[in-house]
Amino acid sequence: MKRLIFTGNQVGGVIIVQHTLSILVLNHPGVLVRVAGMFARRGFNIESLAVGATHVHEYSRITAVMKGSEAMVTQVAKQLEKLIEVRAVEFLPSNAAVVRDTAMIKVQAAREQQLAVLQLSESFGAKVVDISDQALIIEITSGENSTEALIQALTPYGILEMIRTGVVGLHRGSSSIYEKEKRESGELFD
Predict the structure, then answer these.
(1) How much is the pTM?
(2) pLDDT for residue 160 is more than 80
(3) How far apart are CA 39 and CA 21, in angstroms?
(4) Taking residues 106-121, what's their average pLDDT?
(5) Phi, psi (rounded to 5 degrees) for 94
């Protein structure tokens, strides 16, 4: 068995990068399990996963982030498209999409530290959504790098707990994933 050696952004000489997939699915019970199961059965790790309803009641949208080569991600997209409930799959490249996630971070801060934490948070575009005697809850919606930088900046104060929503995103411009779905099935909005 050949062992793959990970060095930076390469595994066995293949360039590994982060990819964001937007998946339009039928809004039926069990669809998320089928989509996540496809990743698991093929040995792909999901770095981030977010699911939500769309403005069209029949559909939900899944945003999945994974690391892999172009060939690996193309294979994932082809496998997803084979699932009956999947209506469209599109890549969200960072130069052609707006991609965000939300985090809520509870930080330990005595009254005398709270102003400093508040100012630090605001410098990242975050806002304080709750204040108690010994802690603050900060909310940030941003790209992953800004969120990670805020987490690092707050670490010295003492992060008590944190939750992140997972990445969501849309392509820039006037096109939509529904156009791709319509071309593929010929039945949407007819």
Answers:
(1) 0.81
(2) yes
(3) 12
(4) 95
(5) -60, -25
